[in-house]
Amino acid sequence: MRPEPVRQLFARLALVLGRESAKLELKWMKQAHAASASPTDLPTMLERRLQGEPLQYILGTTPFGSLDLLSRPPTLIPRPETEDWALRLASTISPMANRPISVLDLCTGSGCIPLLLCHLWPPGSTRAFGVDISPDAIRLATDNAARCNIPASDHAFDNPRNTFIPVLGDIYDPGLLKELDPPFDVVTSNPPYIPQHEYDELPPSVKDYEDPIALLGDPPGAKEHNGLSFYERIAQLIGQQGILRDGAIVALEVGQGQAEAVESILRKRGGLRTTESWTDPWGKKRVVIGRT
Amino acid sequence: MSSPEDIARARQIKELEPLHEAWTQWTRTRESLQETLPLLADTDPAMRALASEEYTSITSTLTSHIQDIFPHLLVPASTTRQLSAMMELKSGVGGSEASLFLADLLRVYTRYANVNRWKTQVIASNQTDGGGLKDAIVEVKGEGAYDALRWESGVHRVQRVPATEASGRTHTSTVAVIVLPLAEESESMNGDDELFSMDDVKVEVMRARGAGGQHVNKTESAVRLTHVPTGVTVSMQDERSQHQNKRRAFQVLRARLMDIKLTKDIENRRATRRNLVRTADRSEKIRTYNYAQDRVTDHRIGLSLMNLTSFMEGDGVQDFLDALQRNHDEDVMEEMIGDADS
Prior knowledge:
- Chain B: This is Release factor.
- Chain B: It comes from Leucogyrophana mollusca.
- Chain A: This is S-adenosyl-L-methionine-dependent methyltransferase.
- The complex is a heterodimer.
- Chain A is of the alpha/beta class.
- Helices cover 37% and strands 19% of the residues of chain A.
- Chain A contains eleven helices and nine strands.
- The longest helix of chain A has 17 residues, at 19-35.
- By secondary structure, chain B is an alpha+beta fold.
- Chain B is 46% helix and 22% strand.
- In chain B, the strands form two sheets. An eight-stranded mixed beta sheet of chain B has the order 2-3-1-5-4-9-10-11, sandwiched between helices.
- The chains are: A alpha/beta, B alpha+beta.
């Protein structure tokens, strides 16, 4: 190790992040370097961080609840806000092995939400599917499932396990859900929700590194420009006959200021009877919960 | 599988063992005395000499029972004997030299824990540029860790020439140590000791994240807990995971609240007595490490140990902890005698 460059790089990082954050990040880089046989040395990590690359891509992992998930560009890095509501959702529902439930996660990305639910709920209680349009995301979700020791299928009758199946698919494809074995007891999603005008203002660590299709709330050619296109589509999907089981729960993450609009979409188009919003640790309405 | 009743019973038997052993030995020695007494007047001088020797050894055994073994059995079994410990170390006066000494002390405690087969884990620490530690929280997991280490609470003072000091002047620096009782997480889940209600704990995240969510991918995992009734606050930011930081912050909070409860229990017990025994003040200087004189002195019991290296690199800390435990036991016995007199 060359100590002098590290010191200089750290000083520059402290100017960007503040001294306290820079110290913590340096410590985590040292820990990650010591823990893995990765060839990335400390100066390289610091240089990449100084160029604006997210720490999670540099270290290659992101903690999510009690899981330690892989993070690879360009798939969206799991956020602490998502971790918070996913943990809360996990403690709201208590499925049991004698009556397993079906979970559908749309725009699954790294697979963080269904994997955490599978990890926290009792063995044999949960069958989860995670749909994403990005092959990169599906590869990462598959690797993460293996890392968390959650199989895609379960054949052991005496020792049941929770399962997670990553599915490459487009939620605008009319035939998508028929392949997935509905009805579902739980539907979750952290769909892209950032409107174009806000996207243009995003910090470089997000805009230059994370997949725009995981962030932009209105796909090209969409009617809406408020970042709500995917909620309209998800409401349409779950509003169809036979998709949700009676008593099902729907949890959709939303961006700042979108909660009320999404609650209304879920009631009007999704046919859900009751909706509420949960607040994240930073005081923002972060997830809309709907029930049949 | 053994039932909880079985475990409790086995524990009780184990705790009564020393009492049983002491009584058996006492009775047996008394019997030997009875057998020996007539022989002291035996006609055979050789036999008389033997008996006299025997008599001396028996009397000394009986005396040690009366003076030492029985009184010690009077000291009630510690109610905290099952607990693990959490040690908080903070550097005080002396700047970077205090931080260096903090790192040295941490090594002493880690080694001591290893010798006792307790598991240590540093759950929070602040490194300084010079290779020292500004502060640290270390968990020492294992039965008896709290009881053994609790005497380390207080201010530790070091007098030495810092490695960083070119002119060779001796500096005086301090490190404050607080030893907290640590219950197993699983134990406190069953509501045995209701230390706090979740409604009384305010959980705060430390920094603003603007719009948050997908808009921000910076790691902001720092957490602060405030126990509103006592005003105890715990901040934790060492882990990348907010979830982990929260879990650890709750561990520290639980340890601090348990500490408050134990202190209050002791005070309540003392308040019922006439003689107020001196309370352990954590801002009190308890020990000095003087490098120039190669000496460690504990100011509470006036014990000095020559050979500082054996403390810093060996098992010298054991001598102090043993002496402090003895001192504590004697205090307890004095209190009991005081109670009996009143």
